Amino acid sequence: MLPTRGYATKGPTSTLEPFSFERRDPGPHDVLIEILYCGICHSDIHQARDEWGGSIYPMVPGHEIVGRVTRVGSQVKRFKTGELAAVGCFVDSCRVCASCKAGLEQYCEVHLVLTYNGTEKDEKTPTYGGYSSQIVVDENYTLKISPKLPLANIAPLLCAGITTYSPLRHFNVGPGQRVGIVGLGGLGHMAVKLAASMGAEVTVFSTSKTKEQDARRLGAHDFVVSLDPKNLDALANRFDFILDAVSAPHDVNAYLNLLRRDGVMAIVGVPAKPLQVQAFSLLLKRRTLAGSIIGGIRETQEMLDYCAANNITSDVEVIPIQQVEAAWERTIKGDVRYRFVIDMQTL
Ligand code: NAP
Ligand code: ZN
Ligand code: ZN
């Protein structure tokens, strides 16, 4: 076993503290990765504080992981020692169900092995995430990243990037379309960059007046302060597609009403409490309310390659791990420009 250092929380009201644990020795198909940077996703906070229920403690959060391969198993073909590698929100899946076979492992019908707050395939051994010094992952669940882009700015692509790329692709966002992005946080700012790069006309809906300049710099054509309902009413029936990336309870009907006939709104944000949908918001214009979760390995690699080709990365604030609690508090307040990333050398 490999002694490993990390930060963990012991319960929903505890703070993150230094924590020592063991990773498995790399098997024939595994790579051992020294973690260099790990992004802070709002899901880390939801899960550490058990806002979705069923959290497993102690919890080492973190699923936006980039680092360097330090050892490879005897059968590993795609990675060599010294190469960069990345890990996202899951580290294994059943590999045989219809979703896994379709390359949509995130919808695995048997057992998706989450990077943290989950169990290995034995359904007993807890998994520990990227707020740690190293991780052991099967090469088939490990991603390749370009050495051309700044490493800290790549980390958030592993969750925020793929979570927004996947629905934009699935719902065929492209030129000539009006796209709304609700919530300019970690996910939202990636959604703006990606949708704009795909040729869509992008409008940001935000509760933070101060983010307008940033939104336009990120590629938005329009910026709407969502706190005043009048601002939304003026845009009724306008949008082809809306992506809702808000982490807290809010009125989704206000956004559904902005969709044109047959328009689609996809939810990626996961507030702790259920969202309330009015039937009229959907049926009056035959609108669709959809959801989407992260992306499969194949599509995650496609997204990373797309971002490398188009020079797209995340806007980040790099912090030492000792400031993680303060970064979480700022994230909850919507005060992050636009993703905190932990420099893991500070561990
Ligand atoms: P984040 O960086 O904290 O961004 C969330 C944004 O939501 C904030 O920046 C803020 O934007 C807006 N917001 C916050 N509180 C609000 C409120 N009370 N009312 C209205 N708007 C509010 O979070 P994130 O990391 O992007 O994650 C967003 C959500 O997606 C979280 O719930 C997370 O768990 C979930 N998530 C889902 C997936 C998936 O696969 N579906 C993957 C990753 C994360 P403004 O300041 O612009 O209003
Ligand atoms: Zn995430
Ligand atoms: Zn499966």
Q: What letter string, H or E per element, gives the SSE order?
A: EEEHEEEHEEHHEHEHEHEHEHEHEHE
Q: Report the radius of gyration as a whole number of Å.
A: 20 Å
Category by helix and strand content: alpha/beta
**Main sheet?**
6 strands, mixed
Q: Which range does the strand content fall in?
A: 25-35%
**What small molecules accompany the polymer chains?**
NADP nicotinamide-adenine-dinucleotide phosphate, zinc ion
Mean pLDDT figure? 97
Runs in which pLDDT lies below 50 for 5 or more consecutive residues are: none
Q: What overall geometry do the principal axes of the alpha carbons give?
A: globular
Number of helices: 11
What percent of the residues sit in helical stretches (DSSP H or I)? 10-25%
Q: Could you give the count of β-strands?
A: 16
What is the terminal separation in angstroms? Answer: 20 Å
Q: What is this structure's SSE topology?
A:
Layout: E1 2-8, E2 17-23, E3 30-39, H1 42-48, E4 65-72, E5 84-87, E6 90-92, H2 98-101, E7 113-114, E8 134-138, H3 151-154, H4 160-170, E9 178-182, H5 186-197, E10 201-206, H6 212-218, E11 222-225, H7 229-233, E12 239-244, H8 253-256, E13 259-267, H9 279-283, E14 288-291, H10 297-310, E15 316-320, H11 324-332, E16 339-343
Parallel strand pairs: 9-10, 9-12, 10-11, 12-13, 13-14, 15-16
Antiparallel strand pairs: 1-2, 3-4, 3-8, 3-16, 4-5, 6-7
Helix pairs in contact: 4-5, 4-10
The structure holds NADP nicotinamide-adenine-dinucleotide phosphate and zinc ion (ZN) (2 copies).
